[in-house]
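User: Hi! I'm working on a homework problem where we have to compare a predicted structure to a textbook description. Could you give me the structure for the chain below?
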Amino acid sequence: MILLKLGWEIGRIESEEANASLKASRVDEFISEEQIFDYLFNKGKEAVFLQFYTPGHSLDQKFMRTFEESSKDERYDKI
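Assistant: Happy to help. Predicted structure tokens:
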């Protein structure tokens, strides 16, 4: 029971950190095609970048971290 509780607490802490970083992120989750058109036409964005998630690949996770860090650059404000 102690190990089960420890695993539960570690998972809870990790998920809180992930949720906090997602809230602070400029990257939005894909909902529908209408969302893409809304960004391009209504919100004045110049480009929309799409990447399909593939679970379990560390290269994919590294790319997304790099993309997230570079998206904070002011030169890419309209993407």
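For your comparison, note the following. The mean pLDDT is 77. The radius of gyration is 17 Å. Good luck with the assignment!
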